[in-house]
Write a structure and sequence with these properties.
The protein is of the alpha/beta class. It has one domain (7-184, 219-246): Rossmann fold (3-Layer(aba) Sandwich), CATH 3.40.50. It is built from 8 helices and 7 strands, in the order E-H-E-H-E-H-E-H-E-H-E-H-H-H-E. It has helices at residues 16-27, 43-51, 66-79, 103-131, 151-171, 189-197, 202-210, 221-232; strands at 7-11, 31-36, 56-60, 85-88, 134-139, 176-183, 243-246. The chain has a 7-stranded parallel sheet, sandwiched between helices. Helix 1 packs parallel to helix 2 (43-51) and helix 4 runs parallel beside helix 5 (151-171). It is globular, with a radius of gyration of 17 Å.
């Protein structure tokens, strides 16, 4: 448990990586706002947090909606206090090879991942500056290095890394750090959807992925939550502008 309880916002937190991160930050002693497109879907995670003695709040928001983001942060501040931790995890996939990818598929993926991270980061920067403390953790991906069928996703996740480094430069003087985590293969609904897209059984898909990973297994949401916990900690104040590949092995 941390000596100081902070208020954290985690986007895309109704399930998967985001839910694991929300639960971990609550275990670390922080109040956690669980944000997702469907507010009702956040209820189960909040219930878990509260059952364990923590404070949680479910907030429905489209992270690409500027006014919606402003209202969501207002609600969090009113119910839990000013947010000084932000985990930008919300994301979608619309995979296809370049010649078959529509402009809408490009725009929607870039908007959720990149515009969403920008809007949330901007919205919490002021309370972080006022508090003299802030932790921003952005979810990138190994796909930022390039991945067939994911021109939109890869571009967005590479953009997240550039955004992270710039936030670290601009906000560091206020006691705010910004770091990114680039997961490899993590067992989530999103990777299950990828398996379905390529016509593979998910278990076979995981086994095939694990055979290419040095630690000989695929990742789990808690692997990412552990890394977020470190970046969000008081002791990580001298770590900023970094990209940590949590992928079971090195990435070039």
């Amino acid at each position: 448990m941390n000596d100081t309880q902070r208020v954290a916002i985690v986007t895309g937190a109704a399930r998967g990586i985001g839910a694991a991160v929300a639960r971990r930050l609550a275990t670390d002693g922080h109040a956690v706002a669980v944000l997702d497109l469907d507010e009702a879907a956040c209820g189960a995670v909040v219930a878990e947090i509260e059952a364990a003695g923590g404070r949680g709040l479910a907030v429905g928001v489209d992270v690409t909606d500027e006014e919606g983001v402003t209202e969501a942060v207002r609600r969090v501040t009113e119910a839990l206090g000013a947010p000084t931790m932000l985990v930008n995890n919300a994301g979608i996939i619309r995979d296809n090879v370049l010649l078959k990818m529509s402009a809408d598929d490009w725009d929607s993926v870039v908007a959720v991942h990149l515009r969403g991270a920008f809007l949330l980061s901007r919205a919490v920067a002021a309370p972080m500056r006022e508090a003299g403390f802030g932790r921003i953790v952005n979810l990138s991906s190994t796909s930022a290095l390039g991945n067939r069928g994911q021109a939109n996703y890869s571009a967005a996740k590479a953009g997240i890394q550039g955004l992270t480094k710039t936030l670290a430069i601009e906000l560091g003087r206020y006691g705010v750090t910004a770091n990114a985590i680039a997961p490899g293969f993590i067992e989530t609904d999103m990777t299950a959807a990828t398996a379905a897209r390529v016509g593979m059984d998910f278990e076979e898909f995981k086994q095939a992925a694990a055979s290419q990973i040095p630690v000989a297994r695929t990742g789990r949401p808690d692997d990412i939550a552990h890394a977020v916990s470190f970046f969000a900690s008081e002791g990580a104040g001298f770590v900023s502008g970094q990209v940590l590949y949590v992928a079971g092995g090195p990435r070039a």
